[in-house]
Amino acid sequence: MEAFGQFIPLILIFGIMYFLLIRPQQQKLKQHAAMVEALRRGDQVVTAGGLIGKVSKVKDDGEVEVELAADVKVRVVKSTIAQVLNKTEPADK
């Protein structure tokens, strides 16, 4: 029983680390993945490199085409989208 008592502080430290560091990071990753999956044409986005542009095409292979200026389009990996500034509303059918 004494040996178990020595492990209680380690277990408590791990529990605190889980709730303060690991769990919030997992939630942030889930939110980012949901944001990336919800990307659609017309959304204004910021890339991880700091470029601001409008999504002109969403591809199935993990890429989006972002228009930075008139006739300037770049292919960007979806996971490098840092944030969505303006969401477009779906068109009425």
Automatic annotation (TrEMBL):
InterPro entries with a match to the protein in the record: Preprotein_translocase_YajC
Record bears the keyword Cytoplasm: no
Family membership noted in the UniProt record: Belongs to the YajC family.
The UniProt record lists the keyword Plastid: no
Gene Ontology BP term (one): protein transport
One Pfam family per UniProt: YajC
Coiled-coil portions: none
Cited function: The SecYEG-SecDF-YajC-YidC holo-translocon (HTL) protein secretase/insertase is a supercomplex required for protein secretion, insertion of proteins into membranes, and assembly of membrane protein complexes. While the SecYEG complex is essential for assembly of a number of proteins and complexes, the SecDF-YajC-YidC subcomplex facilitates these functions.
Name recorded for this polypeptide: Sec translocon accessory complex subunit YajC
Transmembrane segments: 6-22
Subcellular location field: Cell membrane
Membrane topology qualifier: Single-pass membrane protein
A Gene Ontology term for the protein's cellular component: plasma membrane
Keywords: Cell membrane, Membrane, Protein transport, Translocation, Transmembrane, Transmembrane helix, Transport
Subunit structure: Part of the SecDF-YidC-YajC translocase complex. The SecDF-YidC-YajC translocase forms a supercomplex with SecYEG, called the holo-translocon (HTL).
